[in-house]
Design brief:
Blueprint: E1 3-10, E2 13-20, H1 22-39, H2 52-83, E3 92-93, E4 109-116, E5 132-136, H3 140-153, E6 156-158, E7 169-177, E8 189-195, H4 201-207, E9 215-219, H5 220-223, H6 226-235, H7 243-246, E10 249-261, H8 267-273, H9 282-316, H10 323-332, H11 340-366, H12 373-387, H13 398-408, H14 411-432, E11 437-441, H15 443-449
Parallel strand pairs: 5-11
Antiparallel strand pairs: 1-2, 2-4, 3-4, 6-10, 7-8, 7-10, 9-10
Helix pairs in contact: 1-2, 3-9, 9-15, 10-11, 12-13
């Protein structure tokens, strides 16, 4: 009779020893061997007439090993099924000497497996979390800046004949030369684009009236305003504060002159930005735009709040891991084998992901934050609607349901949607448990706080 013994060998780390005796595996081995002798093809023998001794000699050892291992595995999984220890990943087989398996001398064999046990733990209490909701106040300047960007973005590109306006965008070829304008062999030769107003007043004067293919010799530091000089130096392949490079002379060849003609703030433009809404005046337009910008920053504030909650739960929940077992598991148990050093390097990231999985699973379980199939369907429907958003879908949307039905069959997609929704519920729940203090910050400050997992 097979026996199973379990011993603790370290923190959250047990060894399971399975002993199988001859009567556990030998009958099936003999049966397999018989089946084999009926089907094997061997030159010089009719099918099914190969002498048993010969079959045993040739195929016995491998069939024997197979049957012993299958029996052991079955014992292991029967044990895990009935005892249900909370384990990480899969059991790790301890090195066994398979050479000791002797088909001519069937006896008791012992195999060891190592398991890593999931720890019991308490989640850091959310009502003790010190959390700040960083809010951005959307100012009229922010709206103004957005409006002006939109007008430029929606504008038309014209190509005037001559340089005539400080807003002209110039594509120019920078060719390194000496101060008389003679080209330096093997010098820099690179195209870049500059807005006319980035040049100093004196250089702008020289460039006004120039046409395509005209050439002007400049010295970088004299021709460009200080902050614009840095950008051009970088563009030409220097360090931004390279004093020597800043003194170099270049021939500027005008490759192209362009001017963006801004859009006008009129009803046609409002309708383009907010299709299907009744925005008719500039005042309504700015109001609606302000609401959108506010919504965007509210979203960013929530994300940053969730980030704090994530770090609080992760850093303040104490969980012990069977680290040595997990490092061994990383080496042999995962898809591709890793060296001990790789496992050591990957362990910190791996264990914090593992920790987050345990914490979130427990929160989801204890607070019953399940996502129902109906919610999943509704969410996918909304996604499809958003995807087709700008097109008018007509009145007949019956196809939508069958489209979503198809999507529900795609496991990967369902899984991704489920994860996203359950994570949303998790953070909504966590948010409902904390009382953040509010703090006003600038949009740049908030952007600077964002970590991404």
């Amino acid at each position: 009779m097979a026996t199973v013994a379990r011993d603790n060998i370290g923190l959250l780390n047990d060894k399971i020893t399975i002993t199988v005796s001859k009567e556990d595996y030998f009958p099936t081995f003999e049966k397999k061997l018989k089946e084999y002798s009926k089907t094997v093809n061997m030159p010089g023998f009719r099918k099914g007439m190969v002498p048993a001794g010969m079959i045993k000699k040739m195929y016995g050892p491998s069939i024997f090993t197979d049957e012993v291992l299958k029996t052991v595995e079955k014992q292991l999984y029967t044990y895990l099924d009935s005892e249900k220890p909370a384990i990480f990943a899969q059991p790790l087989a301890l090195d066994a000497d398979l050479r000791s398996l002797d088909v001519n001398n069937p006896t008791d064999y012992e195999f060891g497996f190592e398991i890593g046990l999931k720890p019991e733990f308490d989640i850091a209490p959310l009502d003790k979390a010190k959390i700040t909701l960083h809010k951005v106040k959307v100012s009229d300047e922010m709206v103004e800046e957005e409006v002006s960007n939109m007008l430029v973005k929606g504008g038309k590109m014209n190509e005037p004949e001559t340089i005539d306006n400080e807003e002209n965008v110039l594509n120019v070829l920078f060719t390194e030369c000496d101060k008389e304008g003679a080209i330096i062999a093997d010098g820099i030769n690179k195209e870049s684009s500059v807005i006319l107003k980035y040049f100093t007043a004196a250089t702008q004067k020289q460039l006004i009236g120039k046409k395509k293919d005209d050439i002007q010799v400049i010295q970088l530091s004299k021709a460009l305003e200080a902050d614009k000089l840095e950008a051009i130096l970088l563009d030409l392949g220097f360090e931004k504060d390279d004093k020597v490079a800043a003194k170099k002379f270049f021939q500027l060849t005008i490759v192209k002159i362009a001017l963006v003609e801004k859009r006008e703030l009129n009803e046609e433009f409002f309708k383009e930005v907010f299709p299907g809404t009744a925005v008719a005046t500039e005042e309504e337009f700015r109001k609606k735009l302000k609401e959108e910008i506010e919504q965007y920053w509210e979203g960013q504030s929530r994300n940053q709040l969730h980030d704090q909650l994530y770090h609080y739960l992760l850093d303040d929940t104490k969980i012990e891991f069977p680290a040595e077992f997990l490092k061994r598991w990383l080496q042999t148990g995962s898809e591709e084998r890793k060296t001990a050093q790789q496992a050591e390097e990957e362990y910190p990231t791996f264990s914090s992901q593992l920790k987050w999985t345990l914490i979130s699973d427990k929160l989801i379980r204890e607070n019953n934050l399940q996502v129902t199939p109906e919610e999943l369907k509704a969410s996918m429907k909304t996604e499809v609607m958003r995807y087709f958003g700008t097109m008018s879908l007509g009145d007949d949307t019956s196809w939508l349901d069958s489209y979503v039905e198809q999507m529900m069959k795609d496991e990967k997609q369902v899984d991704a949607s489920y994860r996203r929704m359950v994570t949303d519920k998790l953070f909504k729940y966590a948010e409902s448990q904390v009382k953040p203090k509010e703090k006003l910050v600038t949009s740049d400050e908030l952007t600077g706080m964002q970590h991404h997992h």
